[in-house]
Amino acid sequence: MVSKALILAILLRSLALLLPQTFFQPDEFYQAYEPAFFQAFGSGFLTWEWRDLPASGGSGGWWSTTVASGRLRGWLWPGVFYLIYRLLAALGLEGTEWIVLAPRIVGVLVAALTDYSTYLLATKVLGSGSASGALLLSLTSIFNAHLLPRALSTSPETLLTTIALCLYPLPAPESGSIPEDSGNAHSPKTRQVSQIDYGAADRIEGVESCQPPSTNLVAAAFVAALSICIRPTMLVFWGYLHLESTIVAWRTGGLRSATLMTIMTLAGGLSMLAISTLVDWLFVGRLVFPVATFFHQNILLNIAASYGATGLAYHVTQSLPILLFPIWYWWGQGFAVALLPRSILPCALADLDAPKPLSTLARSITFALGVLSLSPHSEWRFIHPLLPQLLLFALPALHKTYQPTGMSASSFLQSLRQYCRVPRKAFYLITLAPIAPYLYLNVFHGAAQVGAVSSLRRGEFGPVTGVVALMPCHSTPWASHAGAAIPGWFLTCEPPLANRPDRQTEEEMFYSSPVSYLNRDFPRSPSAAEASGRRLEDAPSHVLLFGELLRRSDNDGAQETVAHVLGRLGYHERAHLWNGFDVAQDDHRRRGGVRVWTRDEPEERGEGQPPRIEL
Question: For 42, 106, 321, 560, which has the most beta carbons within 10 A of its beta carbon?
């Protein structure tokens, strides 16, 4: 029988399909949809991570050819979308809206399953009384709602990490108890209802409650390895957790128990690694190890630093506050109690519930955050796989201040609040605070970057014979939304591979002198090395750009702007699409809305232009 919690999660997450698809980061397209589309239909664009990397010296041995010059990304996650595209092609639906909608359904399922796995993990770590509260926190988390349905590799990584924790043999939580007032042998000991911890109460022996997920170390290692093969960053989390669990097994069961635990972990992990290697071999045609290549490029060669440097405190000062909005107060209490010795805690926190598995997770998360903070380049989403566990730390503090209202729970919201065991003010803050930012981010912000390309596929801006996107690199999806039949190119920004730190990207070449480029080289791409493979023989029918670019001129004192040059080349603005508030754009070059410029045919230039669209 399907769990009601899972059904609820699927229904709520499915509402995202009613909203327009918005843009968050290029990886949601170029690390999933685009490579899958390329494999399925043979057209589109593969970023540098999906091509053989250039050799950076060495003897040309096994390490050099398989790892150093291998592939940075594996095909497990894009393979899901490859199968969807092939199915759509078999059904003759590749030219319909299903080409965009079907992959989004995968995101809905990933998000809903993550919510449900968080529900199960709370049952395992805190007891069944906390499961509904965990589901509430997962469903109302704006970070979950905004990112989980996207095709970012962190989305399946978050789901698989949570499932693996549900299967992993974490320490069993201690039995709960209801502290009693002092009394004597002849008078009953009592406790006020308002003083009961309604989270720990369900762990009292004899109380009927839902059973936590069964433990299976081999399956847990298999699923954890799957998440690592998709994205290796959580290896530090699992490494610490396994080390601590092995030490505990050694102390309680001796060397035999610790050895058996390690063997079972290796059995599950290596089995998944073998499957992942086989999948990559089928797609690539040769032996590659993307996990090893990932560490080689990002740690040994420090390629990640080319995308911007972040400080050691980045995850503490930025990632955690954003991920945990708006439950900071309750989370801080719960995490402190789970991590720190009771002897140094203030009296107000001394009796807060912190079962053993929660403390184990606190230490594992702290270690993982410490190691990940050493990376020269970090992003908020890099620690998204830790969010389901992080949410659990807020529940003990919420349950501690919760008071039931008995039969007076007449309204739906009041009944829901009591079912989740969350105090009244906290409940309304948690449920209402994320609504406005969620709607803005998922209805308006970045919507034009995706919508413009989909509109080209539908022919809303006239017949398309070629498209050029003069935007910061990867600002829009490409073939997965434009369709296989539309030729064109966009500016790229590949990092300095093969020890070439002085190499300029196409993006840098163009933005250094956009007017000169348009006068001299357009419609070729700015990079001469790639011009032969990405050249349009004729001028494109459509040019995509942001409004900010139109006012730009070269830095040589010339007054001619990009808008003037485009007009002289026979283009006019066909559409101005609002892309959200300019002040909210993380790159000033993405301000001014998305503009679609189309080229006038010679016979049209004396007859007036097609109507202009402004949204």
Answer: 106
